[in-house]
Write a structure and sequence with these properties.
This protein is 42% helix and 20% strand. By secondary structure, the chain is α/β, with parallel strands linked by helices. Among the domains are: 76 residues, no CATH class; 194 residues, TIM Barrel, CATH 3.20.20. Strand 8, helix 5 and strand 9 form a beta-alpha-beta unit. Helix 2 packs antiparallel against helix 3. The longest helix is centred in the N-terminal third of the chain and has 49 residues. The site of zinc ion has 5 residues, from strand 8.
């Protein structure tokens, strides 16, 4: 009999011990969860306590984390506490692993819509994100601009609507049907603004390269083109308009209007207008007289708005990138019209470097029409303008 008991003993052991072990492990599990909840709440309380000088504006539980936002004067502070571990963390840890690249590609795309390339390129990636605000419809990313050249004054931030990134996020959000997003760059009438103008084109690849630099820097310009060159630069002309820039007449053959017969000036302008219209289907409304030289008689006779300049870079004379940049930066002020020529390699190089510097100094760079609009100035035919300053 004894031996039978012995044989049964392992069976009894299993019958009794296994449910006990299950019970214990389950209790242990429950204990851990209770402990977790306490840890999470403890962390949340700790954060609230350490921010008592600030106003708690958000304390919201999401499925995976708790989000806290505090406000004090100009400054906001944000915290994210993991709902499982109670550890302080960041929203960036709740992006689906397999969608991380997509998420940051989307952010980079939005950055390039909003900012000039030199800024957007610098901020691309996750290292430069210093803070993230969670709002009803959007994430707001705040950036560290330390090391950016040239340095800009403004605070750098990006609004990312949830609709743009919801598939990449690993937490649940209730989405508002309203959908707004960073919709690119807008000129601001309260910002300092100047018009950049390029004479003597179209100039093939040089003009196209300038157009690319303008586009990268959220800038526009006005190109005053010579009538007898236009037919050889049709693609460039269309590219200028495609990039949101504008074109004016720079006479038919670049002769000094003071030394040309009025009837030849008039017929030259007519020819230029015809050629331009045949290429673009549009009319020319501006004229820049060659050498800025004009008579009262020409002004009265030509039905056009005359645009000269108040800052001359003398790029044709110096052919020196640094001198061109210096000529602009030493005198530039709100409402200026700047003269350059897209005929020189050194001018193209200067534009590439100058546009970020102007942006960093708070200037937006636009076409003559945009400058007039932003300044609320109505330009009139038979008048000559050198700058467009608010009076
Ligand atoms: Zn010229």
């Amino acid at each position: 009999m004894k031996e039978v008991y012995f044989k049964l003993l392992p069976m009894v052991f299993f019958i009794l011990i296994i449910p006990f072990l299950v019970y214990v492990s389950d209790t242990k599990h429950k204990l851990v969860s209770v402990f977790d909840e306490n840890t999470v709440q403890k962390k949340v309380n700790e954060i609230i306590n350490s921010n008592q000088d600030k106003e708690l504006v958000t304390n919201e539980s999401y499925d995976k984390f708790i989000y806290l936002a505090f406000h004090k004067e100009e400054e906001d502070t944000y915290y994210v506490v993991d709902a499982k571990t109670g550890e302080e963390t960041t929203i960036l840890n709740y992006i689906k692993e397999e969608k991380r690249e997509d998420f940051f590609n989307k952010v980079s795309e939005l950055l390039h819509l909003k900012y000039p390339k030199f800024i957007a390129d610098f901020l691309t990636g996750e290292e430069k994100i210093i803070d993230i605000e969670l709002k009803d419809n959007e994430l707001i990313l705040y950036y560290n601009k330390e090391g950016l050249t040239p340095m800009v004054e403004e605070e750098i931030l990006l609004h990312v609507n949830y609709n743009e990134v919801k598939d990449y996020l690993d937490f649940t959000l209730s989405l508002d049907s309203e959908y707004e997003n960073e919709n690119g760059y807008h000129y601001d009438k309260n910002k300092k603004t100047i018009a950049l103008t390029f004479d003597d084109g179209p100039n093939g690849e040089k003009t196209n390269r300038i157009l690319n630099f303008l586009e990268e820097n959220k800038a526009h310009a006005t190109f005053f083109m010579v009538g007898n060159r236009m037919e050889y630069g049709k693609e460039v002309i269309l590219n200028v308009l495609n990039k949101g820039c504008e074109i004016g007449s720079h006479s038919y053959n670049h002769k000094n209007m003071k030394r040309t017969k009025l009837k030849d000036i008039i017929s030259g302008e007519e020819k230029t207008h015809e050629i331009y219209k045949s290429i673009t289907g549009k009319d020319l409304i501006y004229t820049r007289p060659p050498y800025g030289s004009i008579t009262k008689q020409v002004k009265e006779s030509l039905n056009t708005i005359f645009i000269n300049w108040n800052i001359d870079t003398e790029d044709w004379l110096h052919r020196d990138k640094d001198k061109i940049i210096e000529a602009v930066m030493k005198d530039v002020s709100d409402g200026d019209i700047i003269l350059m020529h897209d005929s020189y390699e050194t001018t193209v190089e200067a534009v590439e470097e100058l546009l970020p510097i102007l942006y960093a100094n708070g200037y937006q760079v636009v076409s003559v029409s945009e400058l007039a609009n932003l300044k609320g100035i109505t330009l009139e035919n038979h008048s000559l303008y050198r700058a467009l300053k608010k009076v």
